[in-house]
User: Fold these one by one.
Assistant:
Number 1:
Amino acid sequence: MSNTQQPAARSYTTLFFDLDGTLLPIETSAFMKAYTRSLGEFAHDHGMDGRAVMGALFEGVKAMAANDGSRSNHDVFWPVFSKLTGTNAEEVEALFDEYYAGPFNEISKLATPNPAAAKAIATLKEKGYTLAVTTMPMFPLAAVHARLRWAGLDPNDFIFVTDYATATSVKPHTAYYEEALRRAGVAASDVLMVGNNTREDGAATKTGADIYFVTDHAIEEEDGLDLAQCKHGSLEDFARFCEDLPSLK
């Protein structure tokens, strides 16, 4: 951890966690490259045009990023995807469920679980903190649960994880975090957001939540928070930070 003076911990009841690059040690660019290649090959093997699927996937992602909050990200994504590929959304979604239950997990070889993640979660649970995963909600629940398991974690340790079926916004929009706060039933002042992206995760502070940046795979955006002015450290540092938090029991 940096030797410079860092902001003191506040009193929390709840911790929100980013996943990729935070709890799961993986480089986002490498993950996305492997994911798109894997999904494209799977689609091709099942009689679909792999290039068309990838093009529709990216357009669907853009549509979710522009979601006005009136529909879930799931309900924004599939009409776009279906229209561009000329496919039946329900049939393709069922097919993709097979992908996330199988071939998707081969990407786990890009990640090496850090025991500090499981240690931190165990410490927080023992002390009575409420935990949630607030990852970018552009994936189905099965894909988020899979990545938690890649990190050596149990999805049941969290009261919820954000996914595209339950979220109506995305990072870094404040609406995304406000929705997560309502779902958790807590005030922002009681929350510590733990992430690695100074813009996407740092946006949680706009609601009044506190922030801790995990620096192992830090992404410092030009328009993000100044990491040096926030609580930060490696995942091992964060696990020690959790040990110093008071018990709520």
Note: The mean pLDDT is 96.
Number 2:
Amino acid sequence: MTISLGIDTGGTYTDAVLFDDANGVIAKAKALTTRHDLALGIAAAVGTVLANAQVPSADIALVSLSTTLATNALVEGRGGRVALVFIGFDAGDAERAGLAEALHGDPLIRIAGGHNPHGDSLALLDMAALEREVAAIAPTVTGFAVTAQFATRNPAHEIAARDFIVAATGLPVTCGHELSAKLDGPRRALTSVLNARLIGLISGLIAAAQGIMAQHQIDAPLMVVRGDGALMSAAV
């Protein structure tokens, strides 16, 4: 018998469900979502569902985690303050695709670099400017988004910028080429900014779930439910 534990953290309630492949839903429980400390709501729901089902923690083979908190944060305009590193673009490009509006005054670092549609370098990546700007801005942000001109054809400058920022600050970095294969640079930048804003929120949710799993001695893979319904490892 394979038992899975499902946890769904919504804006109001956190639900927990135990599911058996052979018999379907074994037990379910609901608790209030505690936004100030997500672990409290998860602990209440998971503790109740385990108690109701009387299922040993060792029998749980998989834990899946889903949430609408990210969608809610986007709709409500919440999330962390991030800096966009905009490589090889003109100043006017930041006005396209709703990018300037999405930044809401968050820092924009525009530096030389980028590639042409064939993947050939347009200019050297200005590492000196990047180092200077990152050092000044890092204490004021929760993460960075990096988008370079035609990085979908050659991501070298995005990767170099990301590696430097991570090494210098330890902050999370989202690269545009990792999220979209489309050539529209400002739109990729917009996607990167939105993703970077949510990393702290999702990381906190995953950490809360992992903490509750440890408390109940649940030794099983933790998977996150993507927007398309597929599962991905929380370690990604």
Note: The chain has a mean pLDDT of 91.
